[in-house]
Specification:
The complex is a heterodimer of chains A (402) and B (257). Chain A has 402 residues and is of the alpha/beta class. Chain A has 16 helices and 14 strands. Chain A has two domains: 21-62 and 98-207, Rossmann fold, CATH 3.40.50.1100; 65-95 and 216-399, Rossmann fold. Chain A has helices at residues 33-48, 50-64, 74-80, 98-111, 125-137, 147-152, 154-162, 177-190, 208-216, 218-231, 247-253, 282-285, 323-331, 341-355, 361-367, 393-400, and strands spanning 19-20, 23-24, 70-72, 83-88, 116-121, 140-146, 166-170, 195-197, 238-242, 263-271, 287-291, 294-298, 334-340, 380-385. With 257 residues, chain B is α/β, with parallel strands linked by helices. The longest helix of chain B is centred in the middle third of the chain and has 14 residues, at 130-143. In chain B, 52% of the residues are buried. Classes of the chains: A alpha/beta (402), B alpha/beta (257). The interface between A and B is large, with 33 and 40 residues.
Chain lengths: 402, 257
């Protein structure tokens, strides 16, 4: 379980200026320059330090419970007439892939001498994963969460509080994930010395997209080993992952980026339909611009105002995508599909019945596209099951009654 | 024609008062009446905010004014329409302040051309990085005689301040503390930073902003720099104003008399 350090000169990895093709960079106000510059100049040295890697590896193994299983989903495979494997990130401590990144960043924050941690959260999964590692390390934790999401995700708010975090409602703008992220950035501007911002997705100013992707790259590193053991080849035909900001997709794709025979499929949230006005399918609806200090694709008006997306899944309800993914989209290296709320719900019910696994609504979007892939019976497909569905029970129950 | 900002600092080196207001606030068509009143009652410079949905560097008061202005229907196109012909009556330098995304979406060169056409003198874009400005956009801004004004903070190193000074035109915007706009921080704690800035003998004039709200804070800032910028306190003052001219007169007379 090494963190990917030497990624060579891949055309899909970040360049020395923090860009992926024409996307990326750090569009930050001067007030954030010292913090971001410190991260930019130190993160690779810290991540490549053997003692850091040892500590990261030990916590992923004993605390998170890695490696997460790569499970051959027999009945799902029969249904879709292909060999489908599920990468079980839902079995991690705290129930999603988010903890891989928070473990990495809390260790980094300690090495930078930071004593206070801030984070943003949408559905609350990243907030819980951050509160968890702060409790583990005894650091103060403040989580910004849109006031609308606080109402929608009460159990995760309770979890964060129980773990000792302070949950601060973001009441500006649209009062959801985008605004929680703004508030976290504003907090960082006001607390430039003692605070580290644990951003939860592969977005934001350089080096966050790359740093988060590296911490999450443990997902594809394990897939390669596990698939080789199970099938005799480390290379599947497809890797499928859902994408909001893009952290689980970044991790699932990471070690396959330069292996072009492996098809990468990112599934965005289509909401009520891409052209319904209630969607979060950024690659279809977005144009180039700046969101949360990164130049990437985002949903905006013709006047450059960022618009509020819609998805049944709070974790995909984000009006941008990380710059690495914008580049994967533009270069054609990854295929971008979208699943509607309805398709995702159906896929969630289906996985529960066929495999006894209730997936997170986010992960259900990835599963929902199995029906649309041109699969052959010999094709090996890995779906990143990014999280478990406990947090979404209300949504599942509400829609079952229909 | 010499840039109006340079003309101003050629004439006046002390106690320069720059007041920020959000375009289209408190009502959509208040932009010009507010600017007219600011000039009338003694503001030396006007900084006009281009509202944005996600103003990262701003505190709650300016955020709310931005949200309100957008709800009022303000956009860059509407702003340029409002500003057409404003130079017939307003002669003080005017700076547009806003975030990079709307400018990028409008088109950087189209934006600069429009600014020059209506008579804008300078631009503040807090999230446009210095390196990107230098490599991509400097020639465009200079072509249209627009001064790009950069920020420096108490955490900015001397080396970086000197680099920023060399790229900035018009003046430097010295953020008084590491904060978003409108935060109260103790000005006395910042005096060492102001002293340090003064001792650097920079090539640009310096105006201090963030946390300037009354005569006392304005005078302190002015003692160390060429003047100061007031934003949040002014937005609060005009938010519920029934008589813009009267409100502006009262506000400014409280600062400079």
């Amino acid at each position: 379980m090494d963190i990917a350090i030497n990624t060579g000169n891949s055309r899909y990895q970040v360049d020395k200026n923090g860009y992926y093709g024409r996307f990326g960079g750090a569009y930050i106000p001067e007030m954030l320059y010292p913090n971001v510059h410190e991260l930019q100049t130190k993160y690779l040295d810290i991540l490549s330090d053997p003692s850091f890697q040892q500590e990261f590896e030990a916590l992923l193994k004993d605390y998170v419970g890695r490696p997460s299983p790569l499970y051959f989903a027999k009945r799902l495979s029969e249904k879709y007439k292909a060999k489908i494997y599920l990468k079980r990130e839902d079995l991690n401590h705290t129930g999603a892939h988010k903890v891989n990144n928070t473990i990495g960043q809390i260790l980094l924050a300690k090495r930078l001498g930071k004593t206070r941690i801030i984070a943003e959260t949408g559905a609350g999964q990243h907030g819980v994963a951050t509160a968890t590692v702060c409790a583990l390390m005894g650091l103060e934790c403040v989580v910004y969460m849109g006031s609308i999401d606080i109402e929608r995700q009460a159990p995760n708010v309770a979890r964060m509080k129980m773990l000792g975090a302070t949950v601060v409602p973001a009441t500006s703008g649209s009062k959801t994930l985008k605004d929680a992220t703004n508030e976290a950035i504003r907090d960082w501007i006001n607390n430039p010395v003692d605070t580290h911002y644990i951003l939860g997705t592969a977005a934001g100013p350089h080096p966050y997209p790359d740093m988060v992707a590296r911490f999450q790259s443990v997902i594809s590193e394990e897939i390669k080993k596990q698939l080789l053991e199970k099938t005799g080849s480390a290379h599947p035909d497809y890797v499928v992952a859902c994408i909001g900001g893009g952290s689980n997709a970044a991790g699932a794709f990471f070690h396959y980026l330069d292996e072009e025979e492996v098809k990468l499929v990112a599934v965005e949230a289509g909401g009520k339909g891409v052209h319904s006005g209630f969607s979060a399918a950024t690659t279809q609806l977005g144009t180039i611009g700046i969101i949360h200090a990164s130049k990437t694709l985002l949903m905006q008006t013709s006047d450059g105002q960022i618009v509020e997306p819609h998805s049944i899944s709070a974790g995909l309800d984000y009006p941008g995508i990380g710059p690495m993914h914008a580049h994967l989209y533009e270069s054609g290296r990854a295929q971008f599909l979208d699943a509607t709320d309805e398709e995702a719900l159906a896929a969630g019910y289906e996985l529960s019945l066929l495999e006894g696994i209730i997936p997170a609504m986010e992960s259900a979007h990835a599963l929902a596209k199995l029906k649309d892939l041109p699969l052959n019976t010999d094709d090996v497909v890995v779906v990143c099951l990014s999280g478990r569905g406990d947090k979404d029970l209300d949504t599942y129950i509400r829609n079952m009654k229909k | 024609m010499q840039n109006r900002i340079d003309q101003l600092f050629a004439k006046k080196q002390h106690g320069v008062l720059n007041i920020y207001c959000t375009a289209g606030f408190p009502k959509l068509n208040d932009t010009l009446p507010v600017m007219t009143a600011l000039q009338q009652h003694g503001a030396d410079l006007i900084e006009l905010g281009m509202p944005f949905s996600d103003p990262l560097a701003d505190g709650p008061v300016i955020q709310d004014s931005s949200t309100k202005a957008l709800q009022n229907g303000m956009s860059l196109h509407t702003l340029f329409t409002q500003l057409a012909g404003f130079r017939q009556t307003i002669h003080v330098p005017v700076i547009l302040m806003g975030y990079f995304n709307p400018v990028l979406t409008y088109g950087v060169e189209a934006f600069c051309a429009k600014c020059a056409e209506v008579g804008i003198d300078g631009i503040i874009v807090p999230d446009l990085p210095m390196a990107e400005y230098e490599s991509e956009y400097r020639t465009v801004f200079e072509k249209y005689n627009l001064h790009l004004i950069f920020l420096v903070t108490p955490e900015t190193s001397e080396e970086r301040i000197r680099k920023i000074d060399s790229l900035s035109k018009g003046f430097l915007y010295a953020v008084s503390s590491s904060s978003t706009t409108g935060k109260d921080k103790n000005m006395n704690d910042q005096q060492a930073y102001f002293e340090r800035l003064k001792s650097l003998q920079l090539s640009n004039p310096v105006l201090i902003g963030f946390g300037i709200k009354d005569k006392a804070t304005f005078d302190t800032a002015s003692a160390y720099a060429n003047g100061a910028i007031i934003g949040t306190a002014f937005i609060k003052a005009i938010e519920h104003s029934q008589d813009i001219d009267k409100t502006v007169e009262t506000f400014i007379s409280g600062i400079i008399q």
